[in-house]
# Entry
Amino acid sequence: MARDRKHARHRTRALALSVAALTVGGAALAGSPASAASRPKGHDVSSHQKNVDWQQARAKGARFVYVKATESTTYRSPHFAQQYNGARDAGIVRGAYHFALPDKSSGTAQAAYFVRNGGAWTADGWTLPPALDIEYNPYDRKHKCYGISKARMVGWIRAFSDEVERLTGRRPVIYTTAHWWNTCTGGSGAFASDHALWVARYNASDVGALPGGWSYWTIWQYDNSGALPGDQNLFNGSASQLKRFARGS
# Structure
């Protein structure tokens, strides 16, 4: 994913049966992204990409995109409206994501700020569930878990999720890496049954190990560059499943 400040680059309850239906061969997708050409291609963008040419992205194969909306309770991407609305106008399913800074304020406060500033959801088939980007601390490498204990981190994520669900009717998608999740939450399995997983792993052979608790993934971020603006992603299902996932049905 990306953080936007200082122009630096960093990397709803979905029904369990609906999410499980997206599983292909259990935990991993065998083969390279190129071998999964039938799966919907997507990407994620932030203000780093500025004003995206969405018609061109669609022509290059984009079928879904996540757009950075907010960070903590003090930042909203100045390019959010162009990116979020432009993707929809081009016929691309889109959703918003929030970059968590759990050492700055509560999960409840950050969720409320996110929903007020782009993280809403509607069952129109074009809006992906709100997403929580929870990963390494980009501002303090010595405190990659933000100086928060495993138990407090799990509580923070739960508070964020509960508030997003209360305000939107959907549990957020959780974006993370296996290493961060297992290190900073202790491999908590508390979210796997009702939160879709968006896993970041830049391994061209397969997704490999998943964060603790999950046995399948919904979105795979497999590269930070490629044909589409921003990071490259695949959806673990068909085009019709992508639309159903967006609708929450």
